[in-house]
């Protein structure tokens, strides 16, 4: 079918050229006969050059050259003695005929080339005008979807298409129509838009947007021009496209290597494939639409990031404000509870006062963690590093948390010959407190807790390990336990405990001191959290 269509088009052009050639030579013959027989002009054969020029301007170089050859033969046969023969007796007549042939061929070629240049200039002007209109529409429109309506209208007008539409990829495998000029018998005029009956060309559609048989633009690297390649895709249909006199063309819309959609166009087969300038215009429009869509995506992502940043900043400011406001009443509650404990002695209200004090301590720890978390997220941690003895730091943390540990078996194995570590004693105490509290919450009351330290290599960091005998954390969750607000399942089951920021603070404070923190399965059966802290040099006094 494709070969028959191309042959039919070529035959039509051949018939038009032959008819034009015959008519031009016939009119020129009449004119030469009139000039020689009526006007009395001797050897008026040069008038055939008018027919050659007319053929070049109307049809091109090939028809003009054929016209020059035809003029040479007609002048020889009709007006050169002896007439009605191709024999020439007079050498002057030979010269005249040869000059007529040469001049006719040269004039025909020059006029034909001028015509080709004019057509090329017109196509390039249309291409430049179309590119300007497409670029202007995408640059000035507030929304890319609105701009694409102007893009398809421009492409239809400047490329002679019967219909142009843009389909974008969505959740479904098929593209959805976002801009459509509709189907018309002639290209739309600027400012107008034809539509198929009962359809809104500007509204997104859910119908399939491309025919199975279409021409796909194949782009190549380098200076070689792109070419149209026939493609037969999965069966699709375009509602409202009658007959088979329309050929479908498709150009992919891409951003980098990611496909976004397609620019589709219908063109009458009698017009042939789009010219090179028309192809470049459609391809450039597809590229610009792809860049506009990518720019919209980046703008949306940037907006989302900015909203998330502002939300995080507002949340951090709120936590910071609330945490500071809570410190004063907590201190007051603890002071009042301590006074009640001292005054009541063995009174029945003494246990209540002690419970108030324990809960106030817990609330104070929570507020401290919230303040630390806000400082970590804001990047405001400024540790004061100096040599710290690990055995003293561990002993102080365990002693301070005796009431919270409630008689739990806490084993320590911190060799006295370990070198001091470079740390902030306040940050290190907060890290140890959170690790001990985490081990207490996520292990049974009879499970052991062990704090050990060592130095694996003579010139490496000091390693501090806090582990428990609880149920531990599944392997797939180990990478998440240092995330903010992540909470593991408690050993006794039921609802989850804690605020989920303790281990996040451990990581933030440890990294602020130049250390590293990891988590793994403990040899006791539960969770083991490992801190690597920089050791002091021999020249640094403890």
Please, could you describe this protein's structure?
With about 550 residues, the protein is of the alpha+beta class. It folds into 4 domains: about 1-125, no CATH class; about 140-300, Beta-Lactamase, CATH 3.30.450; about 305-375, Signal transduction histidine kinase, dimerisation/phosphotransfer (DHp) domain (Helix Hairpins); about 380-535, Heat Shock Protein 90 (2-Layer Sandwich), CATH 3.30.565.10. Helix content is about 50%, strand content about 15%. It is built from 11 helices and 13 strands. Strands 2-1-6-5-3-4 form a 6-stranded mixed β-sheet. A 5-stranded mixed β-sheet has the order 8-10-11-13-12. Helix 1 (about 1-40) packs antiparallel against helix 2. The model is unreliable at about 1-5, about 185-210 and about 490-495 (pLDDT under 50).
Main sheet: strands, sense, barrel: 6 strands, mixed
Give the domain tally.
Answer: 4
Mean pLDDT: 75
Strand fraction equals 15-25%
CATH topology of the largest domain: Beta-Lactamase
Number of helices: 11
Q: What is the secondary structure topology, with strand pairs?
A:
Blueprint (H helix, E strand, L loop, with lengths): L1 H37 L9 H11 L2 H19 L11 H50 L3 H16 L3 E7 L5 E6 L32 E6 L8 E6 L13 E10 L2 E11 L7 H69 L4 H30 L7 E3 L1 H11 L1 H4 L4 E4 L7 E3 L1 H17 L7 E6 L7 E7 L33 H11 L3 E6 L5 E7 L9
Parallel strand pairs: 3-5, 8-10
Antiparallel strand pairs: 1-2, 1-6, 3-4, 5-6, 7-9, 10-11, 11-13, 12-13
Helix pairs in contact: 1-2, 1-3, 2-3, 2-4, 3-4, 4-5, 4-6, 5-6, 6-7, 7-11, 8-10, 10-11
Q: What attributes characterize this protein structure?
A:
5-stranded mixed β-sheet; rod-shaped; Helix Hairpins; 542 residues; alpha+beta; Beta-Lactamase; 4 domains
């Amino acid at each position: 079918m494709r070969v028959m269509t191309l042959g039919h088009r070529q035959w039509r052009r051949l018939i038009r050229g032959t008819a034009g050639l015959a008519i031009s030579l016939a009119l020129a013959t009449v004119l030469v006969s009139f000039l020689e027989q009526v006007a009395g002009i001797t050897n008026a054969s040069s008038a055939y050059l008018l027919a050659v020029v007319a053929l070049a301007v109307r049809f091109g170089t090939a028809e003009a050259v054929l016209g020059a050859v035809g003029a040479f033969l007609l002048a020889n046969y009709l007006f050169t003695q002896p007439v009605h023969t191709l024999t020439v007796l007079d050498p002057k007549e030979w010269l005249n005929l040869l000059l007529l042939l040469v001049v006719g061929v040269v004039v025909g070629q020059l006029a034909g080339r001028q015509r080709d240049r004019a057509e090329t200039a017109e196509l390039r002007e249309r291409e430049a005008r179309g590119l300007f209109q497409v670029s202007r529409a995408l640059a000035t429109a507030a929304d890319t979807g609105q701009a694409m309506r102007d893009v398809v209208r421009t492409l239809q007008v400047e490329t002679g298409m019967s219909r142009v539409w843009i389909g974008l990829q969505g959740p479904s495998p098929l593209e959805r129509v976002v801009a459509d000029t509709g189907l018309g018998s002639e290209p739309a005029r600027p400012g107008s838009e034809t539509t198929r009956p009962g359809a809104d060309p500007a509204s997104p559609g859910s119908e399939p947007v491309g025919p199975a048989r279409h021409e796909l633009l194949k782009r190549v690297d380098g200076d070689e021009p792109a070419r149209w390649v026939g493609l037969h895709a999965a069966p699709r249909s375009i509602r409202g496209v009658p007959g088979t006199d329309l050929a479908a063309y498709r150009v992919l819309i891409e951003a980098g290597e990611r496909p976004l959609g397609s620019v589709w166009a219908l063109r009458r087969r009698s017009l042939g494939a789009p010219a090179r300038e028309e192809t470049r215009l459609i391809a450039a429009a597809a590229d610009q639409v792809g860049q506009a869509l990518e720019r919209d995506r980046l703008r949306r992502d940037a907006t989302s990031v900015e909203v998330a940043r502002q939300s995080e900043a507002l949340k951090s400011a709120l936590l910071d404000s609330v945490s500071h406001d809570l410190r004063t009443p907590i201190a007051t509650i603890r002071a009042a509870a301590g006074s009640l404990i001292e005054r009541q002695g063995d009174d029945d209200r003494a246990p209540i006062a002690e419970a108030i004090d324990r809960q106030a301590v817990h609330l104070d720890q929570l507020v401290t963690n919230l303040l630390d978390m806000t400082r970590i997220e804001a990047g405001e941690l400024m540790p004061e590093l100096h040599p710290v003895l690990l055995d003293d730091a561990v002993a102080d943390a365990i002693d301070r948390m005796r009431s919270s540990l409630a008689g739990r078996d806490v084993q320590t194995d911190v060799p006295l010959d370990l070198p001091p570590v470079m740390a902030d004693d306040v940050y290190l105490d907060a890290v140890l407190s959170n690790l001990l509290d985490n081990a207490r919450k996520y292990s049974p009351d009879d499970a052991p807790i062990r704090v050990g330290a060592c130095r694996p290599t003579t010139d490496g960091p000091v390693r501090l390990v806090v582990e428990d005998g609880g149920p531990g954390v599944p392997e797939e969750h180990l990478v998440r336990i240092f995330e903010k607000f992540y909470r593991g399942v408690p050993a006794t089951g039921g609802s989850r405990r804690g605020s989920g920021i303790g281990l996040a603070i451990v990581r933030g404070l440890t990294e602020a001191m130049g250390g590293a923190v990891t988590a793994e399965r403990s040899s006791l059966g539960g969770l083991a959290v490992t801190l690597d802290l920089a050791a002091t040099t021999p020249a640094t006094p403890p």
